[in-house]
Specification:
This protein has helices at residues 2-7, 10-60, 66-82; strands spanning 91-97, 102-109, 126-133, 138-144, 153-155, 160-163, 167-170, 178-180, 185-193, 197-199, 202-208, 229-237, 246-248, 251-260, 264-267, 270-275, 279-281, 286-289, 292-297, 303-305, 310-314, 324-328, 337-340, 344-361, 366-367, 374-383, 388-391, 407-409, 414-415. The chain is an alpha/beta fold. The chain starts with a helix and ends with a strand.
Amino acid sequence: MVRRFRSSNQGGVVIAAAIALPVLLVGAGITIDYGYATRDRVVMQAAADATAIAAARELSNGYLTDKRISEVVNGFALRQLESHSLHTGNSVTARITNDNRSVEVRIARPMRNSFPGLLPTNEAGISATATATVVGNQKICVVALDLASTEAIYMKSNSWLTAQDCNVYSNSKSATGVKSDSGIRVTAKLFCSAGGYSGSGQFVARKLVDCPPVDDPLAARPGPPAEACKAQHLSVIDKGSTNARHVLTPGTYCGGLFIGGNSVVKFEPGAYVIKDGPLVVDSNADIRGDHVGFYLQGEKTTFQFLSNAKVVLNAPKDGPLAGLLFFEDRAVSLDREHVIKSNYVSNLTGTMYLPRGKLVIDATNEVAQQSAFTLIVVRKLYLSANPKLVVKSDYRASEVPVPKGLGPLGGDPVLSQ
């Protein structure tokens, strides 16, 4: 029996296999782990690329705080990773670079370990990085939509249009689509006319003709939902004081809304539908509203800021009128006038969207000069003899969103190589 055992090779094979097994398992584990790592890195890179693009789109809309960028990149990246079964252990960070034109995103996670305690842990883990840049950062801030008018933009003597670091467009193909008098002054990065210019004046801007018309960037934007009337033909006269403003709340104001006398009024945040009558602020009235928007519904509904009315308004940051200060009903007749005659309309942060109407600035002082930004999309723009319309474009200074197609222009962000 002993002699037979000594002559047998089977025991040696078993012993050799027992010795080799841990080595084989370690090798298999390493192969599996690096296979997972290769696959995970591909998934992470795709997620980092998509997240950088998403964050750069937010950046191109102007307002992106550190908190907001963290919300965007974490929410977007984690959804991408979870769809590929990478549910836990992910670290997502981002930073804004390149003078606020780029977003760098980094995703990291530990490397998988098939045999914890047996195989060494890769402390460095695996990571993927992507950077997306907003290219051609040109800002559209004024658009006159009329395609044929001889005066889509008309600036009378001594009127000023200051479009700070942004572009002005006239869609009219008429040779006199932009008309001006000798005393006017226009400051802009670019002034672009689909047709031509008539008259004189000073243009501190790159001045172009034959520009392709700008499509209405808000053409698909729906108005707010219809609601029952909150008030009928409401007049607010001599109500409130500086220390205790008279408060108006969102809703539908049928027959218009008049605020006059020495009224001091606060608009609570939300959407205000002014229906079948004008919105008028007159006399020495003082109105303020943070995150308020006005939908001008019906043929008789325009807005008028008259006499010495003081106006400080910021558009909503969310809801049906997000980003919009004024939204004109698309069913009304053409060329109704919305008028600013007061010298104390100092803050109009947001977008004035009057696709059927004419915005008439007839003050003798600066208008909108304290706004973080003002965007104007109208059928026609008319500056009377003396106003100084200030169109700022500091989009990051406000949490009011910029509608897509306005503000920074240049298409989708691109990934940096």
